[in-house]
């Protein structure tokens, strides 16, 4: 199909079909949407052999291209990973329908009764990279919120995404919903991304889910609004009033549980007074766990710490590496994070409520934490069932983006012939 | 100042100052912000002679340029209009502070306590045309929500806006808030608008408030996100179950109370069965009130109705003109509005709950109404104190944009050393 594909025309057709489907989805019943999700989950399980076969072909090509181990890991599907997708779809089906919820309701002296109710956004474009499971998660979350989805996966996961998408379409068909409710762009051609970014008439918002270069391209080129998903330059500040044991537990987990996720800690900021009084046993823990700790001058006396360079501040390693430096109290930490952070997730370890309040008040990350592992920065852990990603922008969606964040609202105003004086 | 103004450098300085001010405003107390608003209100009243003098100079220039009567009316300030600005500022000061409000709060089995709290957005750029009062309204709403504002008024209202802005700065000074919290672009040069549209580092969102060509330019050129304020192509559908008296009252008010506002009715859709049974006395009312009614073929038999052309559907007159046509029931009305509407405000006149429910469900205007005048499409009438405009987009802000819609949120997560399994 790739060779003879007229991108502009095909993308326009996909957009028009999505817009038409979105109009129908806007008032599809909760039962119908959940039926589609359950049927899709069943289809994923029933057709797992087919999916794994498609994935094996993708993996073979990827290996032949010499693609890196981390990327191969993201690309690979196993029966366990298919099961996780199935469970994800069922969890989304089990959640309450966000559409139609009355967000606020009030009366006015003029005789008006006003309700603010949740509505779908319309058409959502999701541009992602090599993880094939995003096909299922993103498609399902969009559908749950009554939106049509146009999914554009990475070229390496093309076959896997297509096999998964076929199961989502099975689900839509079983529930008598329009098949264009979830479309997968049927080409590897990167020009399709460029088209999507400009389709202001047919796409209401673009969600880029992937690495820095993908997100940067989307933000630079898009005419369609974007829910920015920047990298997670996650800081942990160890305050002078930190509980040493909590600091050790939280820091080890935040860095090492999984190093490749956006909530993994990337930089430790340690209050100078704390360090002078109590040292930094959590740094020894990290080194013992195989983490490379890149410290500033004051920390290089610690055994195993290697020197940090200027490029280590504000860096997302997504690997067994962490930067570390001393700061002058919470204000020093705030200053560092404002300068180098990415407004994703930042954490303070302290028993002092005033310090925590200052950290929460003066920083503006989507997620601010106190005395908990930053690895909790996740829609599932927040109780949202699933997430399409962690938004770092400030408009509309912020933090974990679940079905609720994929909605808009409208005002319904009723009266009995009221006129304005 | 205009002649020697280095637009690029000056706008960058304005942006950087706004960003710095926004950081301080983000945690300014409610008392401090309200004090600034009250002091600004007082300054506006104390310095009204100066404001009216500046406005007289603007009016003189505008008349010399041969500017139209409607625009002169928007530009003109009177003591009454200054008093309205003063009252607007006081009303905004009296409203609750949206910042810091806990929007949701819950516990997780993992031991996490999660709060979602309102925050300011940051820096808001407001681009408006000839109404000088927008300077006060927009500046005050941005401040109330803890945002820094960069205001760019039309060149005709330059001196008036500058005099009003000086009073806002008096208020900021009285409350010891940064003066860069509300800045007015100090040049008439249109290149300043172009700079603002591209200042993604310094401006978080642009609110264009003005006519179709301004909004179109902003939407086409902006790299900064925009709260779209499209025109109000407001429809009223008279259903077969309409109460004839309510229809007459509502339609006359919706068209004639003020024809120049975005909530004024522009198109009547009349159910064919209703028309055949009951006629259209509301059309006779409109004609008697001096409104030009442009009807489709079926309506031209009515005395005084002139023929509508294809260009009359989907048109915002903002004048004593209305289009009118017969449709086949509520579905015919929905079809017409989907095709020609602007997602601003649309109204159904019916006593039939099922018809109203269908109209509310299948249309996606920011404001949908039943049996009330569309002239109520206004932030003040909704109880928001004041508005910066009516947003017709679907992301973030929608409908009347008051202080609450000028906020974002963040998640505050607390625990007692919780780590992720």
UniProtKB/TrEMBL annotation, chains A, B:
Keywords: Amino-acid biosynthesis, Cytoplasm, NADP, Oxidoreductase, Proline biosynthesis. It is found in: Cytoplasm. It comes from the Bacteria. PROSITE patterns: PROA. Its EC number is 1.2.1.41. GO terms for cellular component: cytoplasm. GO terms for biological process: L-proline biosynthetic process. It is an enzyme of class 1 (oxidoreductase). The keyword NAD does not apply. InterPro entries: Ald_DH/histidinol_DH, Ald_DH_C, Ald_DH_N, Aldehyde_DH_dom, G-glutamylP_reductase_CS, Glu-5-SA_DH, GPR_dom. It catalyses: L-glutamate 5-semialdehyde + phosphate + NADP(+) = L-glutamyl 5-phosphate + NADPH + H(+). Pathway: Amino-acid biosynthesis; L-proline biosynthesis; L-glutamate 5-semialdehyde from L-glutamate: step 2/2. GO terms for molecular function: glutamate-5-semialdehyde dehydrogenase activity; NADP binding. Gene3D superfamilies: Aldehyde Dehydrogenase, Chain A, domain 1, Aldehyde Dehydrogenase, Chain A, domain 2. It holds the Pfam family Aldedh. Residues 11-285 form the Aldehyde dehydrogenase domain. Belongs to the gamma-glutamyl phosphate reductase family. Catalyzes the NADPH-dependent reduction of L-glutamate 5-phosphate into L-glutamate 5-semialdehyde and phosphate. The product spontaneously undergoes cyclization to form 1-pyrroline-5-carboxylate. NCBIfam families: PRK00197.1 (NF001221), proA (TIGR00407). This is Gamma-glutamyl phosphate reductase. The gene is proA.
